[in-house]
Amino acid sequence: MTSTTAAFLADASAADRMAEYRRRGWWRDDTFLDDLRGQARRRPRKLAIAGRRLDEARTDTLDYAELSRLTDRFAGGLLELGVKRGDVVAVQLPNRWEMVPLMFACMAVGAVICPVAPVCQAEELRHRLALTEARVCVTLPEWEGYPLAETVCGLLGELPLEHVVVVDGPGPEGTV
Fold first, then answer.
1. What SS3 class is residue 112?
2. What is the Cα 119 distance to its own chain's centre?
């Protein structure tokens, strides 16, 4: 960046900066969700995600059409649970393909996604869920022998948390 550009950006109003960023191609008005929808229309069968599951010696793949459909399905599920714009959805998953449609689903409904590492056990998890006031937590039944879903369910009565969604297996009673 030249000193002239730096001086302009330092003195410019927010609207002027935004206009300059758009003119230079640094910003655009499309969202990541718009990008996903565009790819699903233009290249529906092109690979979007490849996720390796080392413990099962397999690779899960999704093309853009599947990713878009799962995004809609997950967004519908969040809406059915009463998630609204601005609500926090905690997601306690390791690096898995499910994170991507969940992220897009949160964008679609206007929710805020709050990733939580699966290594967070009860006390740290309680703190994070309380701090964010998450209404929904998406998790696994267990991870590396630790009962994730059961731990989250144990916090239901003491937090604003209303729903525990379990992916990839059965969860304790009361989970979705």
1. strand
2. 18
pTM: 0.83
Structure tokens at 4: 């002239």
Tens-binned pLDDT, residue by residue, of the chain (176 aa):
556 666 655 667 888 888 899 999 998 889 999 999 999 999 999 999 998 876 778 888 999 999 999 999 999 999 999 999 999 999 999 888 999 999 999 999 999 999 999 999 899 999 999 999 999 999 999 998 999 999 999 999 889 999 999 998 888 887 88
> How far is C-alpha 127 from the chain's CA centre?
20
Domain count, the chain: 1
Place of tokens 């267990």: 142
| Residue 20 located in a structural domain | no
- Say which CATH number the domain at 117 has: 3.40.50.980
Residues of the domain holding 140? 32-166
Characterise 175 by phi-psi region: left (phi > 0), alpha (psi -120 to 50), beta (else).
beta
How far is 41 from 61, CA to CA, in rounded Å? 18
* Residue linked to tokens 């964008």: 107
Q: Does residue 58 lie in a domain region?
A: yes
Residue 172, in any domain of the structure: no
d(CA 163, CA 37): 28
Query: Distance between terminal CA atoms of the chain?
Result: 51
